[in-house]
Amino acid sequence: MTIPQRPEGCFCPFGCDIHDHPTDNSIGWLISEYERLKAQIPQWREMASAPKDGRDILLMGGKNSGRWIRTGYWARRTGGWCVDVVGGSGFDAPTYWCPLPALPKEATDGR
Description:
Blueprint: H1 28-39, E1 45-46, E2 57-61, E3 68-75, E4 80-83, E5 94-98, H2 105-108
Antiparallel strand pairs: 1-5, 2-3, 2-5, 3-4
């Protein structure tokens, strides 16, 4: 593996030939890259903002039955959250949701 040479003033760990960015020693690009990457990390959100379009999401809830995290989706037919559970019941209503992370490339490219 060959490591690309960085132009003077470039702090990019990948080398400047992979993508364009300023090389003027300012930290502006690093801050914006940090914010861009940080925005990609799924965050827990209030249920009022949860999508009700049938897509799978992570759901978290629990008080009386203990804390739980499961995948689930909004079921239009029943007008409620359908939580994926193998055996058992008594789950409290979900209180938070989080988008599922993207699938790995290997899982989506037909292999």
